[in-house]
Amino acid sequence: MVADIRAVVAAAPLFTPETTHGHKMSVRMTAAGDYGWISDRRGYRYAPRHPDGGVWPPIPASVLAVWKAVAGVDRAPQCCLVNWYDDHARMGLHQDRDEADLSLPVVSISLGDDALFRVGGIDRGGPTRSIWLRSGDVAVLGGAARLAHHGIDRLRPGSSTLLPKGGRINLTLRVVD
Ligand code: MD3
Ligand code: FE
């Protein structure tokens, strides 16, 4: 699967999203499928093209097989978001609610170094719990969890040998529209 993701990155290079306030995110991103998720000073949105102008490569069969095994829905994913973390990258608490049908799950696949995942409730500012996501972990975020606040506080550098230079890849599979 890592080789498949490297081929996706070769076709659709990683980029650094910027928030609407002009701050760079620490996670680099790209995507496969009909849509990618992009963020810049104009806002964030699903988009049918990479910031460089090309269409996204297809979602690798190895990744689709995981969705088919665990998602439990008849729809195929339209977006495989690729989040690439270096040792210092993090992702602040947020909700995923840009998709049209929030009754459909998000499937997450973790590869590489361990990451401290924080998950709370639907309301911002409530209690949270933390768990370590490890290489090979697959999470299905559905039902009440679909609108939970979540984020990545930090990596545990050197915890996996999967990626020769370290770091972490997280794949999220989503139905967009
Ligand atoms: C809980 N990614 O791409 S994956 C994201 O590890 C994102 O890169 C994190 O949050 C990462 O939006 C976390 C686990 C995850 C993914 C989607 C969720 C948890 C979720 C959607 C709803 C609730
Ligand atoms: Fe998210």
CATH level-four homologous superfamily name: Alpha-ketoglutarate-dependent dioxygenase AlkB-like
Bound molecules: N-(carboxycarbonyl)-S-(naphthalen-2-ylmethyl)-L-cysteine, fe (iii) ion
| Chain-averaged pLDDT | 97
Give the strand tally: 11
User: How many alpha or pi helices?
Assistant: 2
What fold name stands as the CATH topology?
A: Jelly Rolls
Shape: globular
Question: Helix- and strand-based class?
Answer: mainly beta
Indicate the topology.
Blueprint: H1 2-11, E1 28-33, E2 36-40, E3 43-47, H2 61-70, E4 79-85, E5 91-94, E6 106-112, E7 114-119, E8 129-133, E9 138-141, E10 150-156, E11 168-174
Antiparallel strand pairs: 1-4, 2-3, 4-11, 5-10, 6-9, 6-11, 7-8, 7-10
The structure holds N-(carboxycarbonyl)-S-(naphthalen-2-ylmethyl)-L-cysteine and fe (iii) ion.
Residues 94, 96, 150 line the site of fe (iii) ion (FE).
Explain this structure to me?
This protein has 177 residues and is mainly beta. It has a single domain (2-174), classed as Alpha-ketoglutarate-dependent dioxygenase AlkB-like (Jelly Rolls, Sandwich). It is 11% helix and 36% strand. It contains 2 helices and 11 strands, in the order αβββαββββββββ. Strands 1-4-11-6-9 form a 5-stranded antiparallel sheet, with helices on one face. Strands 5-10-7-8 form a 4-stranded antiparallel sheet, with no helix packed on it. It has a two-stranded antiparallel sheet with strand order 2-3. The protein is globular. The model has no long low-confidence stretch (mean pLDDT 97). Fe (iii) ion (FE) binds next to loops.
